[in-house]
Amino acid sequence: MTLRGEIIAHEDDLITVRLIDSLDVETVKKQAYNGKYYVTVDVFEKDSITDEQRRHFLALCGDISEYEGVPVDAVQAKMKYDFMKEEGLTDYPSIARNKLNKTTASKLIEFTVLHCVYNGIPFRKQQFYLTTDTSKMLFALTMKRICWVCGKRADIHHASNLVGMGNKRSKHNHEESTFMALCREHHNEIHNRGYADFCEEHHLKAIKLNQKNIKELGL
Question: What does the pLDDT look like over 41-62, one tens digit per residue?
């Protein structure tokens, strides 16, 4: 049992804690040892992994587990081990509170999301990329033609420097354009609502692609 609280007073080795979470007294009683109740005090670190980051990582591992038919514990272990090798870490990463900082946790989530994208693993919850390096994530989704909003199969939408009706796509300088990957539904939505309103609603911003990327996408 882990409970959050605030230290409101202390004197020598005596501290007073105001609990933030509810205390289940009956559960505590079951943990008595020789009539006494022992606790471990773990001071919260401001830069520690957040509960939201932890939930995101665990949910992503659940998606991988369901898609690959591998136990979720094994998926978590593999993703953390592969991430450790990728980042050159000396210690195996733990997602327990106070064991991983927010920055490294974000990198772990980004690493896991990219694994899903490049291996065609669908997300049960979209927009996990909003907790990661957004430009890197949107690029990966674009190159896999995955809709930035819902994860369905996507078209590549010119967001600026448009081809224009009647103009030849082969003559257009695509390197001057910015792009978004959108399914048919969200492609229609951006045209109906307008770029600015659509991007504000979905927290998105179009990206640039180089000549190699453009050729690979067949634009």
Answer: 766 656 788 888 888 899 899 9
What is the three-class DSSP state of 25? helix
pLDDT at 79: 95
User: Would you kindly state where each structural domain of the chain is located, as residue ranges?
Assistant: 1-41, 51-130, 133-217
CB 147 within 8 A of CB 121: no
Torsional class of 91: left (φ above 0), alpha (ψ -120 to 50), beta (otherwise): beta
User: Could you write out the DSSP letters of every residue in 142-185?
Assistant: HHTTB-TTT-SB-EEEEEES---TTS-GGGS-GGG-EEEEE-HH
Q: Cα(2)–Cα(151) distance, rounded to whole angstroms?
A: 36
Q: What is the mean pLDDT of residues 15-39?
A: 83
Instruction: State the DSSP code for 106.
Output: H
Instruction: Measure the N-to-C terminal CA separation of the chain; round to a whole number of Å.
Output: 55
